[in-house]
Amino acid sequence: MSMTTNSSVRVTSPNDIHQNPENPRLVFREKDLAELEDSIASNGILVPLTVYQSSAGNLVLLDGERRWRCAKKLGLHRVPIIVQPEPTLMQNIMMMFAIHNARSDWDPLPTALKLRQLEELYVENEGRSPTESQLAQLASLSRGEVRRLKNILALPKAYLDLIKAEQDLPRSEQSLTVDHLLEVTRGAAALARQGILDYSDQGQLEQALISKFQKKALTSTVEPRLLTRMARAVERGDIPARTIRDYVDRLVEDPTFTIQNAFDATVRRSEDEHNLELSTRRLIKGVNELSRKESLSQSSELALKELRDVLNKLFRD
Asked: For the chain, which domains are there?
């Protein structure tokens, strides 16, 4: 190992640097690496890698694994580094999150797994589980991000295995993502809470929707949210549960039938009427409040007269 000793920025062979086993980023896509490799080939490494020297004397990466991989592939003999003190295991994981928390290219599943390890280390050290706020602070994440990562870990193992099988692909080529699975399970659970599905039926619906995403019969990640709106319609008493169940059965049996199709056939009209009712009641309240004040503006009077004409025509017809 060859290193200078008179500067905070040093140089060493990339072959003398080791990967950080605590890095939540496990997936490095070839296309992204190729673009960075071209930049390094033309301009060199402009930002030094950050490493620490372990008690065994090894240099271990804290930040810059993509640059390090490209340097090795290009056969560079020297790379610039900044050496930090060796952290504890818990500090190491916290640093990984802190250094990379602004990066959008981390895959959710390995990040969630590393967050769970950080939580377990906290329990070992403190003898109690961290609150959501404490865990968010430890991982340099928002509470919403922590909640999302924990929801990922709560998915069935079989679903997580599906994600693992796809995470080496470029995101544009992935037919199934963590967000697909989260939306599918939430939507199916909403139907189950209203008694539209039992546990086994819920699993069948989830499997059918996952298959539709894989086969591109479903393409919108958020389309499963319509299932929650269908469940709310049943809860309000707008639609019989049996009607929704019939269309859920069709979702399971017909590979080309979409959630949007089921929603349009069952809930769209009743939901539009429900929204109209809410809007009308807000309007009535607003008009009553205005009527107790000074006279209306000319534009408000014109709008209300137009509404009166529409209502007269509606009820006359």
From this structure: 1-86 (3.90.1530.10), 165-266 (no CATH), 271-316 (no CATH)
